[in-house]
Amino acid sequence: MQTALRTSLPETELASRANFAPHARVVREERPAQTTGLPLSIRGLRKSFGDNEVLRGVDLHIPAGQFVAIVGKSGCGKSTLLRLIAGLDKIDAGSISFGQDFEPRDIQPEDIRVMFQEPRLLPWARVLANVEVGLGRDRASGDAHARAEKALTEVGLADKRDQWPSVLSGGQKQRVALGRALVSRPRVLAFDEPLGALDALTRISMQRLLERVWRDQGFTAILVTHDVSEAVALADRVLVIEEGRIAHDVVVNAGRPRQRGSAELAGLEGSILSHLLSADDRT
Amino acid sequence: MSLIDSISLPRSLRLPRVDGLIQWIVPLAIIAIWQVASVAGFVPTRVLPAPSDVALAGWKLLLSGELVRNIWVSFWRASIGFLIGGSIGFAFGLANGLSQLSAKLTDTTLQMVRNVPHLALIPLVILWFGIDESAKLFLVALGVFFPIYLNTLHGIRTVDPQLIEMGRIYGMTDGELFRRVIFPGALPSIFVGIRFALGIMWLTLIVAETIAASSGLGYMAMQAREFMLIDVVVLSILIYALLGKLADSASRVLERATLAWHPAFQKR
Ligand SMILES: Nc1ncnc2c1ncn2[C@@H]1O[C@H](COP(=O)(O)OP(=O)(O)OP(=O)(O)O)[C@@H](O)[C@H]1O
Ligand SMILES: [Mg+2]
After folding, report:
1. How many CB atoms lie within 10 A of CB A34?
2. Domains and CATH numbers, chain A
3. Which of A194, B27, B52, B116 is the one with CA 20 to 30 A from B180?
4. Strands (DSSP E) along A166-242, which ranges?
5. Domains, in order of start, for chain B
6. Residues 121..160 of A with a Cβ closer than 8 Å to B: which?
7. What is the pLDDT of residues B224-243, one digit of tens each?
């Protein structure tokens, strides 16, 4: 299933993944087969708040394991779309389904995780306990500690396990939140501007971390961001939302690891920005 | 980093010991000045007896067993009243913070009752209970109820909704959500309520014991007044001050132990 869906990815993407095969294989072997990414299909999705029609028919297919970035001007409904995907709000019309091959009952709540701009850590729980929260119903299981520690190691914070969140920096808190989202080995991970509150340097190191865990774990990643350069640096595909629909669907073919500030990415960034700005001029 | 460490480390080692003593300098100095003033005759002993006289009176009462008995009675009344009023206030705070229905049903009524000063009920309470134990317990419980109720309610209502949403996303059951998110989030506010309530507890008890009691510290002070034993009156007042301080310290210790995560309680 993994290979079948992989073929739907652009060729360069496959090639770039092959570069990392040795590393990726090591990680994949110790993981149960069911923790690979889920494909996602959205059809005719609508959502309004009162008179405010925010989403007016979104159609979208995301293949398993793809990294998708969603951009659009403020208030265009990016967070709304993400919350619907994560099941946090009710759908007005249309449907969201995770893969054709899956019965709804095959999908556990632990398979879909969200990360927000705020870390949302429990201030009264130590770092490790905060990560354990991410295990969902497996919190009480015997290996909860071990799994949480592993997730903390993945985000590079193993030495902070016994700290209170209040002593961590903003970037570290966000990494704990990432560890909490990863600990259940989700198959879809949705990010709502997770790096929005971080300074430029921390952002870049967090972007690298996101890319690394995504490559290691193979989940389907949906990243909402207002930073177009972040979108083209990380994503396989950038979606531009305008007037409640997906107005542009831009494939990013650049290989990985990506050279930040390369001409190719800069060109893409420029064209996406001009889409956004022209939409802004029209309104 | 290393510079900061080298400065803050010795200080954090030194501070607790000095801290423990520093706070007693002013009370001790006041007592010393007071003693000197009394001995020198600046303060007539009819107005204010010397600290040594107060201590002597305390010693005598201690030997007769009267002091311990009265302190114990007052302490018992305070704790039982606090426990009753506190648990009812906490229960209502929880119920109204967690359930809209419960809040709609009872909050308005409670807010109305709150505006009656509970000490205004003393005449009524004496008519109901006489000068029985239950009169004092009732008054203390009533006084303690509101600060605990209001602060528990406020604490629960102001728990970060984003954290609650996070708990739900991560599949917490209602019980888990309460235990891991709502209650710890409300705890700082609950402690504010407890500290307020402790103050009200002593105040209520003093008033109640002075007006309607046949034992306890307030009663001891009133008796002493009738016999013009001003040293015993002053002694009672000092003991109230010490007990109040003790209760406050106890709540601080508890606060420190349970709110260790709070930036305000981490080593500065
Ligand atoms: N719970 C809600 N109730 C009412 N209106 C809402 C609600 N949530 C979102 N909206 C409205 O829906 C629209 C889209 O909001 P959304 O948060 O999805 O925008 P966004 O694209 O994420 O913006 P930003 O980039 O600023 O985060 C906005 O006009 C907002 O006012
Ligand atoms: Mg948003």
Report:
1. 11
2. 2-107+187-282 (3.40.50.300), 121-186 (no CATH)
3. A194
4. 188-192, 220-224, 237-242
5. 53-259 (1.10.3720.10)
6. 122-125, 133-134, 136-137
7. 989 989 999 999 988 988 88
In this prediction, residue A255 carries a pLDDT of 85
Ligand found nearest the CA of A73 = 1
* Cα distance between the two ends of chain B: 15
Give strand pairing partners of B177.
none
Element (H, E) at A136: none
Share of chain A above pLDDT 70, in %: 84
Q: How close is the Cα of A18 to the center of ligand 1, in Å?
A: 39
- Rounded to the nearest angstrom, the minimum Cα separation between B107 and chain A is 29
Residues A81-121 pLDDT 10s: 999 999 889 999 999 988 766 566 567 788 899 999 999 99
Residues 6+ apart with CB under 8 A from B55: none
Binning chain B into helix, strand and coil, the percentages to the nearest 5 are 85, 0, 15
Taking the C-alpha atoms of residue A92 and residue A19, their distance in angstroms, rounded to an integer, is: 43
Nearest protein Cα to ligand 1, atom 30:
A75
ipTM > 0.85 for the complex: no
